[in-house]
Amino acid sequence: MSVTAPAGFVAAGVTAGLKKSGGLDLAIVANRGPLANAATVFTSNRCKANPIIWSQQVMADGRVSAIVLNSGGANCYTGTIGFQTTHATAEAVAEQLDVSAGDVLVCSTGLIGEQLDLVKLTAGVFDAGLALKDDDAASAAAGLAAAQAIMTTDTRPKQATQVSPAGWTIGGMAKGAGMLAPGLATMLVVITTDAVLSSAQLDTALREATRVTFDRLDSDGCMSTNDTVSLLASGASGVDADPDEFAGALTALCRDLTLQLQGDAEGASHDVAIIVRNAAAETEAVTVARAVSRSNLFKAAIYGNDPNWGRVLAAVGTISEADAAFDPYGIDVAINGIQVCTAGEPDEPRELVDLTPRAVSVVIDLHAGTAGATIWTNDLTHDYVEENSAYSS
Amino acid sequence: MSVTAPAGFVAAGVTAGLKKSGGLDLAIVANRGPLANAATVFTSNRCKANPIIWSQQVMADGRVSAIVLNSGGANCYTGTIGFQTTHATAEAVAEQLDVSAGDVLVCSTGLIGEQLDLVKLTAGVFDAGLALKDDDAASAAAGLAAAQAIMTTDTRPKQATQVSPAGWTIGGMAKGAGMLAPGLATMLVVITTDAVLSSAQLDTALREATRVTFDRLDSDGCMSTNDTVSLLASGASGVDADPDEFAGALTALCRDLTLQLQGDAEGASHDVAIIVRNAAAETEAVTVARAVSRSNLFKAAIYGNDPNWGRVLAAVGTISEADAAFDPYGIDVAINGIQVCTAGEPDEPRELVDLTPRAVSVVIDLHAGTAGATIWTNDLTHDYVEENSAYSS
């Protein structure tokens, strides 16, 4: 169960013919209420896709009745025609579900700079609308079909659920395997809940959750133009959720989906946690960890099972003093539990490090304070190069 | 001819046994005067290698009699012992050449976090010292041996010369194939001249030249801990160089070496010029071009001969408004002369772009001003991953 786990939600995934592969490529998640509260976080990329521009307008009143998502095309850098396609898609959903188009979020993912086929899109919306009227539209199978329909280079759907003893539930689905380096938001993620919460409460909880989960995933340093995380509340449980408990459960769910995204990142053979400890501030810990996560040399070494810790420190050293306080010669580095560097000098032999497991931890102790942060990244592999050298062709 | 082209310089390259391959791995370039003026630019990485820490002290008085360079080890993150190794190397050179150790620059390149073998180093310095006393120590062959001795993963030596009708000459050699993303300086570069110029004049000319050449090379986004560009003047021509003419020739020579470094970057199959036009300021053009040069998705697409211009704009969009002024929907993109995007919408079909040549140009017109800049980068290839996944092992 994922987005259909909370009461009040139905979902569908259909084949609209947008993907060359012929698989499921269009999903709708609809909120049957009684509430239609929502919060979203969008990409901070200035090159925002048409669905983002549309959805930002939808969010002006914090009300969302449904969200439609397609793979097979990002509808980004497609100009006025592309925006009209997004608008027409929302109108088609509104007509099928008898809601206002102004309450329909649109998400698209795929190649940038190509027009989507509106005829196929609207036919897909019609099929999905029919499926949503089906008895099993609230089933786990329906949620799974929606999660499958938003996949691009993902090899498996990503779903997660959190159930509160208080009587409410959160469900979520996500897609994303490349261009995985969000700024404020990431990929396409739809989260549903039947808790009773206002749009403002949802917004607070969602921003806090994404800040420490999706925002800390930096698989390949590339920020998408289409990233959207949406949180829809139906209130169908009738339970007023404790905001703190809800925020905790939401963060756990987002963390679950984040690690699923990391585990399925394009071509990756290692899931790497860059853990910075004893920084002067959390933001500085994030800055240092992100610099390491963006070092191609470090990432290629991890692929080769090579504990080349000099590349960790060379990346750390690129951070200016204004951005992070630390003594560059007072840093410790441990890789998979082996302390290879203490106070800027070699410690345990690098040969002791076992990098054969998929999970890798790199702990960087800055000795500059008490704050910390983790960035999740992946290695740089032949498969990553292969997948991304032949994406549009 | 390279560093030995200007009068007053001798060079040697010998095998000290530091490289596993058994090739040339230690070079000395000595200035026989009459002047010993010099300027240097060092890496802006805060994790500076021991040779950088030493050489910064040497430069306090702007006097340099000789420079010793080794491959086979970076002598970075090697602590007090590593610094003593650098100091002892300078003392050995001083003894061989009968100069002050305080006038000997030291450069090292190779793996970080391993001690250099001082016995091998000093034996190598002894051999090089003998070679420098040879009659042909000022020959082109001697310069070539020095250029070969500083190679690491380079496949060929890099040399360049500029000759002024006024009667002075500049020669240069460079090494660098990975960790190619300098901040203020880059790789190991030694430039010699027989022009009569003060250390202050050399410093001004060198900073202006590196700013628009080595600093604009960003092959893999990784900044080294050991980068040093040195400019030594012997004054042996007896000609007072016009500072503007000298700066122009020096910039041309640095540009020549920069393009040689790009052309030999690890595993690269394309040399890509990211040309940003009509930016509000030169710094903003550099920022935009650098963001594109660091997009792994863009670089992998170029490797695959895929003109995926959406990845160019997605990278441009990551730049904040504070860092560069532009309308994200008003940008034009041309790849190898084909205008694939005009004002944020598809223009000529991407299929018209021919990416089979090694040289690629990506022109990004921001329509935000009149400034421009070029960043030189490379594609992301299987060979890059291969070379860098098995470097220390």
UniProtKB/TrEMBL annotation, chains A, B:
The active site is at T186. It comes from the Bacteria. Gene3D superfamilies: ArgJ beta chain, C-terminal domain, L-amino peptidase D-ALA esterase/amidase. Substrate binds at T152, K175, T186, E266, N388, S393. Keywords: Acyltransferase, Amino-acid biosynthesis, Arginine biosynthesis, Autocatalytic cleavage, Cytoplasm, Multifunctional enzyme, Transferase. The record marks A185, T186 as: Cleavage. The keyword Acyltransferase applies. Catalyzes two activities which are involved in the cyclic version of arginine biosynthesis: the synthesis of N-acetylglutamate from glutamate and acetyl-CoA as the acetyl donor, and of ornithine by transacetylation between N(2)-acetylornithine and glutamate. Heterotetramer of two alpha and two beta chains. NCBIfam families: ArgJ, PRK05388.1. This is Arginine biosynthesis bifunctional protein ArgJ. The gene is argJ.
